[in-house]
Amino acid sequence: MTVSLQFCPHCGTRVTAHETTCPQCHTDLQAFRGTDKTAETSPKLNLNALYANPYKEGMKRLKQRDGAPTATKPRRWWWPWSKE
After folding, report:
1. For 8, left (φ over 0), alpha (ψ -120 to 50), or beta?
2. 5 near 29, Cβ under 8 Å?
3. pTM of the predicted model, to two decimals?
């Protein structure tokens, strides 16, 4: 079932059911006439991502996309004054 629009969501101009773009601002109305089920099946917002390090999260996604292994050997720090 599609959503029926009576007004443009961008400028508020009255639109009819058969118009694909707003006559006033030329906004594409097809995107706003999607199905009602898209809102129900959308994934939940991960609140942990709001507090995470965006650089680290981005690099993790980049490694997953490129197929690089995500689990790497932890780096051992070497200090000049250490005896190792």
Report:
1. beta
2. yes
3. 0.37
- List the pLDDT tens digit at each of the 84 positions of the chain: 456 788 888 888 899 888 888 989 988 888 888 755 545 566 777 776 667 677 887 788 888 888 766 566 677 777 777 665
The answer to whether 27 touches 21, Cβ cutoff 8 Å, is yes
Q: Smallest Cα–Cα separation from 26: which of 13, 41, 43?
A: 13
**Residues 26/18, Cβ–Cβ less than 8 Å:** no
Q: What Rg do the C-alpha atoms of the chain give, in angstroms?
A: 25
The answer for residues whose C-beta is within 8 angstroms of residue 28's C-beta and 6 or more apart is: 20, 21
C-alpha 35/C-alpha 2 separation (Å) is 5
